[in-house]
Amino acid sequence: MSSGVDVPSIIVGGGRIGTTLAELGPSTIVKRGDPFPAEPTSGPIYVCTRNDALAGIVAMTPPDRRADLVFMQNGMLGKFLEAQGLAANTQVLLYLAVSKMGEKPIDGITDLNPEGLTAATGKWSRAFADRLKKGGLTCRALDGEAYTKAMLEKHVWICSFMLVGALNGGVTVGEVGTAHAAQLADVVAELSAAGEQALGVKLELGVYGRLEAYGRSVSHFPTAVKEFEWRNGWFHELSKAALAAGAPDPMPLHTAGLLKLGVVKA
């Protein structure tokens, strides 16, 4: 049974995030090539890997335990989870940065969101929040439209900052928000509007301010457009669908940026 109390868990991936979670509560870490552990027989299975490993992780997980998989990857996972029959699984929007192994994690707390930005939804959301709490870290348990809106904001953040940073020579996240603020604001507006239309939600006023504030909290992080299928590719598919229907591209700045970087072809 799920609960709001941390319980023994399985953690897939021994990188920075997986190791951090393991330090906060009883865990069995599964690394690449390891068999699925026999214990614990219940509880969350935190998936702390890159997106391209997800299909293999689902396949290695016994069918009766797949509902316990907790996905915390960046990007839009909806189509993948639906195809795997896991659309109702716990998901996490992780605003938790660990610069390198062993360093104290940077919580997603900003001057505009002092309650923290990390959010989770689903069966194990409250257990996950309790685990973070033990480390002095924050997490909001959200459901339904509230989670969808938070998911869109996180997606807009990573896609806009990475694109603008890459277009300007791979500058840091902090430099994107200072030296290229006008360009960033235009891209954020474009992506937000298109995402709202696609998901049927309306973001609260002040999106740019919230995203820029988070950028300041991880200002030293590098920028690059990567994991395209899961990140900027989600927005690009919306552009392609609009153009195929004879409508204008809802995100011309985003499309032009991808073309300039050579990520997509005309």
Question: Quaternary arrangement of the chains shown?
Answer: single chain
> Count the strands?
9
Number of helices: 10
How many domains make up the 3D coordinates? 2
Spans where pLDDT lies below 50 across 5 or more residues: none
N- and C-termini, Cα separation: 50 Å
What does this structure look like?
With 266 residues, this protein is α/β, with parallel strands linked by helices. The chain folds into two domains: 9-142, NAD(P)-binding Rossmann-like Domain (Rossmann fold), CATH 3.40.50.720; 152-261, N-(1-d-carboxylethyl)-l-norvaline Dehydrogenase, domain 2 (Orthogonal Bundle). Helix content is 44%, strand content 10%. It is built from ten helices and nine strands. The strands form two sheets. The protein has a seven-stranded mixed beta sheet with strand order 2-1-3-4-5-8-9, sandwiched between helices. It has a two-stranded antiparallel ribbon with strand order 6-7. Strand 8, helix 4 and strand 9 form a beta-alpha-beta unit. Helix 5 (144-167) packs across helix 6 (173-179), helix 5 (144-167) packs across helix 10 (252-261) and helix 6 packs across helix 8 (207-217). The model has no long low-confidence stretch (mean pLDDT 96).
